[in-house]
Amino acid sequence: MNILILGCSFGVPNYGGSGTGLQEHHTEFLLLDRGHVVHNCSQNAGSNLNTLERANRYLSGLPIVHPACEIGNANKYQNQFIECKNIEPLDLIIWFHTELSRDGRYANTVYSKFAEFFSTHNAKVAVIGGAGDVLPEFLTMYTPDFFIPSWRRLILGKDVPLSNTLSDARSIDNSTLPLIEKLKIVEDNLTLIELVNQSPHFFDGCHPGQWPHQDLVDRLIGAKLIT
Q1: Contact call for residues 191 and 159 (beta carbons, < 8 A)
Q2: Which carries the bigger pLDDT value, residue 218 or residue 179?
Q3: Which strand ranges, in their side-by-side order, compose the sheet holding 124-129?
Q4: CA distance 43 to 65
Q5: CA dihedral 130, 134, 139, 141 (to 10 degrees)
Q6: Phi, psi of 17 (to 5 degrees)
Q7: How far apart are the first and last CA of the chain?
Q8: Mind listing the pLDDT tens digit for each residue in 157-172?
Q9: CA 93/CA 147 separation, integer angstroms
Q10: What is the dihedral sign for C-alpha 147, 68, 66, 28?
Q11: Least confident residue range of 22-31, 43-52, 114-123, 146-155
Q12: What is the predicted pLDDT for the residue at 71?
C-alpha cells in the first residue's frame, strides 16, 4: 500500500533523537516493516496548514525539508530535503491533527482545506487527534474512514480535557474569551499535562511511545485500512 502521513511531531519518528529510541516503534516504521510504502510529510513543531502545504508540494514532485527539522530552529536536519517523483496513487492518508492555535486561522478554514485535499485523492482517510484534539466541526465537512478525535484520551483511558493550546499559552492570553473561560482552559491544560507526565505511555511527557503506536497500527488493521 501507498501511505501518506501528515502532522506535527506526533507524525515524526524523530529518527532516534533525544535518546528516545522511538524511530523503530513509530507508526511510520511499523508500517514500513509490514511492507508498505510510506511518505511522511509531517514536521516537528508544524501546524496543520503547514503540513498540508508540505504534502501538496511533495505530491507535486518538489522537495520538502526533512520531517525532523524544527520550524525556526537549526538542527542537523535543517538543510536536508526529501522528495518523491512519479508517486503512485495513495491508498491511505493518515493525519495526526495538531493544535489549531498553531494555524492562526479559524477551525472551519483549516478543516475545509483538509476536506478539499482528502476529496481530491481516491484514498482511505484516517484522522487522529494528536497534539491537538479534533473539533466536532470537522465531521460536518468530511467523514473519514477512521477517526480518533483525541488520541490522548484513548491512550490515557480517561475523559481528560480536550486541548488545542497545550504548547501555546500565548494563544489563550491573546484570545477574546472572557477571563473566566481563559482560566478554565489553563486549568484544564495543567490537568492534562500532569496526567500525560504521569503516564508510562508518553515517553517524554508529551509524545506517545511504543505501545500507543503499536495499538494504533493494530486498530488500522482491525478497521481493514491496512493489511
Answers
A1: no
A2: 218
A3: 37-40, 2-7, 92-97, 124-129, 146-148
A4: 8
A5: -90
A6: -65, 155
A7: 8
A8: 999 888 888 877 776 6
A9: 12
A10: negative
A11: 22-31
A12: 78
Contact 44, 70 (CB under 8 A): yes
Cell numbers 493544535 correspond to 99
Reported as type and span, the H/E element at residue 116 is helix 107-119
**List of domains in the chain:** 2-156+209-222 (3.40.50)
pTM for this prediction: 0.92
Instruction: Please give the grid coordinates belonging to residue 69.
Output: 527539522
Cell of 181: 473561560
Residue 155: helix, strand or coil by DSSP?
helix
Average pLDDT value over all residues in the chain: 90
Among 151, 142, 152, residue whose Cα is nearest residue 121: 142
- Alpha carbon of 120 to those of 99, 114, 123, 200: distances in Å? 24, 10, 9, 39
74-86 residue pLDDT tens: 778 878 899 887 7
For residue 215, the tally of other CB atoms under 10 A from its CB is 15
Q: What is the mean pLDDT of residues 180-201?
A: 88
DSSP collapsed to 3 states, 67-96: CCCCCCCCCCCCCCEECCCCCCCCCEEEEE
User: What residues contact residue 180 under an 8 Å CB cut-off, 6+ apart?
Assistant: none
